[in-house]
Amino acid sequence: MTVEEVLMEKVRVLPPSRQQELLDFAEFLEQKETVSQPRRSLEGIWADLDVKITEEDIAEARKEMWGNFPREHFFENESK
Asked: Mind listing the pLDDT tens digit for each residue in 21-76?
């Protein structure tokens, strides 16, 4: 008996609500198998806008965002 035949037998004994659940799961698995298109890089998206972001710009933005982050709240228990 093939896997397909065994599956069909199992499906036939399930109530309709479980059959729908099985169908939903099969569609989910099918979607996982399809090859998705690779995402475009951000550089490619804004290439025609003449935007230049350097590593230094990113490092500076990180410093600005996280500079006043209250680290003591997270590390005060380590010394105990």
From this structure: 999 999 999 888 876 777 777 777 777 888 788 899 999 999 898 888 877 777 66
Residue reference for tokens 């397909």: 4
DSSP type of residue 48: G
User: CA 40, CA 45: separation in Å to the nearest integer?
Assistant: 7
pTM strictly above 0.90: no
The b-or-e profile of 46-64 (16+ CB within 10 A means b, else e) is eeeeeeeeeeeeeeeeeee
What tokens appear for 39 in the block? Answer: 């995402």
**C-beta of residue 51 within 8 angstroms of C-beta of residue 41:** no
